[in-house]
Amino acid sequence: MKKMKKLVAFLLVAAMMVPMAACGNKVKSVGDIQKSGKLVMATNAEFEPFEFKDGDAVVGIDVEISQKIADRLGVELEISDIAFDTLITALQSGKADIVAAGMTADEDRRKNVDFSDAYFNASQAIIVMNDSDIASRGDLNGKKVGVQLGTTGDKYCTNEDGANDIEVAEVKRYSKGMEAVSDLIAGRIDAVVIDDFPAKKLVEKNADKIQKLDEALTEEEYAIAMPKGSADLQKEINAVISEMKESGELDQIVSKYIAEE
Known about the structure:
This protein has helices at residues 2-24, 30-36, 61-73, 87-92, 107-110, 152-158, 177-185, 196-205, 231-247, 249-259, and strands at 38-43, 46-47, 51-54, 57-59, 76-81, 98-99, 113-115, 120-129, 144-148, 170-174, 191-195, 210-212, 218-222, 225-227. The protein has 261 residues and is an alpha/beta fold. The strands form four sheets. Strands 8, 9, 10, 11, 12 and 13 form a six-stranded mixed β-sheet that branches. It has a three-stranded parallel β-sheet with strand order 5-1-6. It has a three-stranded antiparallel β-sheet with strand order 2-3-4. The termini are far apart.
């Protein structure tokens, strides 16, 4: 009888914990964010000019867009600088309200998060040594390629399902693009695949050694990510992006950072 009572008690506790856990994973509404007084933006500040460090501050195109969203909601913008491959987890666990990190709105990610309308068209650039025999994207076949962990370049070069037309010999992953470039210069890899704008910055700093190919590996679009089911937040973010496009403000922000290159 005692064992039966203990079992019943255990089942009652377990049943009570299920709804509690569900509440913990509740998607925040715009009202919830406004009540908290802050919009938490998760990013990886290693992606100039979209997000990068200027002293102790994180600045860049994505930061300015996120600030406009925070202003529309009437809250403060709080920036969480974390590893790129943990950004979606931060959304799913409720540690962040949005991800603005030069993130490509691809189909795999759409299974786990919702995206805003696209705010930028981008591409995956190929960086090689100045004397490299790699002259086009097709020349990456059979080569050792460095990528930033969790990016579109990583997924494309890894090519797990074999659907892509490029088959590299080996993919080496890095937390930062500059680490991949260092290995390229040191001769440890044959090429680096990374987003176009950071690629330009990296090449500019090492123009005597490396170059960016004219041909891109892939074309893509950046959008702001949010937890699945964030319909009201998505509506507000899309409204901000639309207004910024129509007014020309988005182009002005992008041009400001690109001009600094």
